[in-house]
Every structure is written in C-alpha cells, then in structure tokens.
Amino acid sequence: MYKMSILNQLILGKTGCVSYVIYCSTKRECAIVDSFDGFEEDIHEEIRRLGYPSVKYVIDTHTHADRKSASVYFDNEFKTGGIIKSDKTKFQGSCVKTKDGDILNIGEIEVKVMHTPGHTYDHNCYLIKDKLLSGDCLFIGDVGRIDLGGDPHEKAELLYKSLRKLEKLPQNTRVYPNHVGAAHAIDSEGSFSTIKAEMESNEALKIKTIEEFYQYMTEGWPPKPDNWQKIIQDNLTG
C-alpha cells in the first residue's frame, strides 16, 4: 500500500547534494539512493531513525562527476548483491543493470526505472507512484549540464528527449532532484517541485527545438567541478 511508503530526503550539510531513503513500513525494507562519501552517517542515522529496516537495494541515478559515491560502501555493508544502475553504465564493480521500464520492489513499493540519458549516458530517474527521483536530469528551475564528458550535441539531444518523457508524467508528480539551492546555482531554495510547476517556470523545459536547446545547454554554465574527470573515474572503478 503506497500510504505505507516513505521517501526521505537527506540534504547533506551545506553541499546542496541530496541522498534519499525509500522505506516500506509494512515490510520494513528500504533502499538507499545516491549516497556520498563523507556523509555515510546521514544514511546510518536515517536507518536508525526508521528502526533498522533491512536494506534491499543500493541505487545510483548516474555516475556522478562532482562527488565520490558511497554506494560501494553501503553495498558491501548490507550485502545487497550489487549497486542498481542503468545498463548503460561503465561501472567496473558489482552491479545490477536495469533497463527502461524495469520495476524494483521494496516491500510493497513499486519503483519504476526511467532511463533518462543526457546529463550522462547512464542516467536513470526512479518513479514511485507520484514521486520522481529526478537525479541530475531535472532540477528545480533548471536541468543537469551536459559538458562533463561525451559528445555535447548527442547529449543535448538525449536530454531533450528525456525531458519530453518526463513531461508526459501526471502534472502533480513531485520532482525530487539530486541537487538543491545556491551551492549548485539553483535559484529556488525549495527541496522539491512538481512536473506542472517545472513546465510553467523552467526555462529549459520551455525550449521546443533541439537546436535551441543545444544553444541553451552550451552557454552560460558555471565552472566545471574541480577534478571532475578523476571523480568520474573513481566512481567507475568503485
């Protein structure tokens, strides 16, 4: 029963980065989504607060370029059998590869995998009924950058098509991104949005041709994260 599901959003200090714990109280199972090195205690504290449910999955939305993942750590700690990732991943460690439309069951909660490439080739969003974990695909008022490796033309087209997919979700679907606030040059201090609100106010979603979208995605972005290439490589090698 979805009323027994809980999506807990953990904003990690002043970094603006966000981790999530999906929890089913009827079966006392949970999943950890997008954990980060240095903030393992935030996850441990949340699991303690929930009364130590069993951890069924450790999930990544994508290969991060701005922060070292802690997913390997939690996969090893809770022996989940590999990190849940897109089948487009180049991760060299133990993982369970997903395809678009796959369903992950956490107790009585169904989590739908939505492959949404663009920010990275291996990007997934995860839909829990009317809640979307949007990773770095869709932010509050913006979208994830495309200039951290790969072909920018190809990635712009992929992201454009991924956004069209998200636009087809029910308008009241809540959007929970991987980054919030000023630390990531996001104007809104809100911690979630909705598909309707983003379609009405997000400049990136208002662009309706791939050519214009490519121009938008290649102009005026903040500096790239420090050591982003090394961070990517570290996250791929585990």
Briefly, what is this?
This protein is an alpha/beta fold.
Keywords:
238 residues, alpha/beta, Metallo-beta-lactamase, Chain A, 12 strands, 26% helix
Describe the model.
The protein has 238 residues and is an alpha/beta fold. It has one domain (2-220): Metallo-beta-lactamase, Chain A (4-Layer Sandwich). 26% of the residues lie in helices and 25% in strands. The chain has 7 helices and 12 strands. It has helices at residues 40-49, 71-78, 152-167, 195-201, 203-206, 210-217, 228-237; strands at 5-11, 18-24, 29-33, 54-59, 83-86, 95-98, 103-106, 109-115, 124-128, 131-135, 174-177, 193-194. The strands form 3 sheets. It has a 6-stranded mixed sheet with strand order 7-8-9-10-11-12. Strands 1-2-3-4 form a 4-stranded mixed sheet, covered by helices on one side. A two-stranded parallel ribbon has the order 5-6. Helix 3 (152-167) crosses helix 6 (210-217). It is globular and about 50 Å long. The mean pLDDT is 93.
